[in-house]
């Protein structure tokens, strides 16, 4: 059954993480980061940080189900969006921990988030959602330092990601949550206005763009970034179970 509450979303993510630990599957790396941020949103709803808490929970569940559906479909060899296919395929080759996480974030934020927002508010005014949509940026910013600290436990050279991100030619490593969510809001506005074949065509275009962006993460073109990621990988923990246990502590 698909989750209908954030508590059920967290339980579903826990199952993915547990399976990833048992199977040594890097898919659990993004699932962990996503679980941590979803938990933070749940806490914000509980302290009434949003203008409309019940709507925010409904939105967050709809958003999460897009990832859970993609994960389940991938596990059953059912076709998924190209951007998600790229993210899941990356778990089959040895990538740096940050690459696995960024590929999941790329697909889920740049693609799924717009779908969730536009679908939830279809046939209703979209603008009332905007303040709560943007409030999430502040909530996520609260845990950025924590997540970086946790990643440094399993990737001692993780600081290279920030250093390489300062080079504009290598800026793909400096994934901006705020920029991604801003893009997603604009895409949501477009999708909200469209129906039928026009909607499907715009969604296909978005998937192609997000896939191309993901390719830059999976196969970076810059010499400095490629070598920086290789160096990061050389010093990272390799056992997925060990990585996830260290991240969760």
How does the SSE layout of this entry go?
Elements: H1 6-23, H2 27-46, H3 53-75, H4 82-89, H5 97-120, H6 130-141, H7 144-154, H8 159-165, H9 177-193, H10 196-218, H11 223-235, H12 240-248
Helix pairs in contact: 1-2, 1-3, 1-12, 2-3, 2-5, 3-5, 4-5, 4-10, 5-9, 5-10, 6-9, 7-12, 9-10
How would you describe this protein?
The chain has 249 residues and is mostly helical. It has one domain. The chain has 12 helices and no strands. It has helices at 6-23, 27-46, 53-75, 82-89, 97-120, 130-141, 144-154, 159-165, 177-193, 196-218, 223-235, 240-248. Helix 3 (53-75) packs across helix 5. The radius of gyration is 18 Å and the shape is globular.
Helix-residue proportion: over 70%
Count of discrete structural domains: 1
Query: Mean pLDDT across all residues, rounded?
Result: 91
Overall SS class? mainly alpha
Largest sheet descriptor:
none
Total DSSP E strands: 0
Low-confidence stretches: 167-174
Tally of helical segments: 12
Task: Quickly describe the structure.
This protein is mostly helical. 39% of the residues are buried. 74% of the residues lie in helices and 0% in strands.
Features:
single chain, 249 residues, mainly alpha
């Amino acid at each position: 059954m698909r989750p209908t509450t954030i508590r059920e979303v967290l339980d579903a993510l826990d199952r993915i993480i547990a399976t990833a630990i048992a199977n040594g599957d890097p898919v659990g790396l993004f699932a962990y980061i996503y679980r941590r941020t979803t938990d933070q949103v749940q806490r914000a709803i509980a302290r009434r940080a949003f203008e409309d808490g019940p709507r925010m929970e409904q939105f967050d569940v709809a958003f999460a189900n897009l990832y859970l559906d993609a994960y389940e479909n991938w596990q059953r060899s059912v076709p998924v969006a190209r951007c998600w296919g790229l993210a899941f395929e990356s778990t089959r080759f040895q990538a740096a921990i940050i690459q696995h996480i960024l590929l999941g974030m790329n697909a889920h934020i740049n693609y799924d988030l717009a779908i969730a927002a536009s679908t939830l508010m279809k046939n209703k005014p979209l603008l009332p959602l905007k303040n709560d949509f943007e409030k999430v940026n502040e909530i996520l910013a609260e845990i950025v330092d924590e997540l970086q600290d946790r990643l440094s436990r399993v990737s001692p050279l993780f600081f290279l990601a920030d250093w390489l991100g300062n080079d504009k030619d290598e800026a793909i490593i400096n994934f901006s949550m705020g920029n991604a969510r801003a893009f997603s809001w604009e895409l949501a506005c477009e999708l909200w206005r469209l129906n039928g074949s026009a909607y499907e065509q715009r969604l296909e275009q978005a998937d192609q763009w997000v896939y191309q962006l993901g390719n830059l993460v999976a196969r970076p073109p810059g010499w400095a970034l490629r070598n920086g990621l290789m160096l990061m990988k050389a010093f990272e923990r390799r056992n997925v179970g060990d990585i996830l246990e260290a991240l969760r502590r």
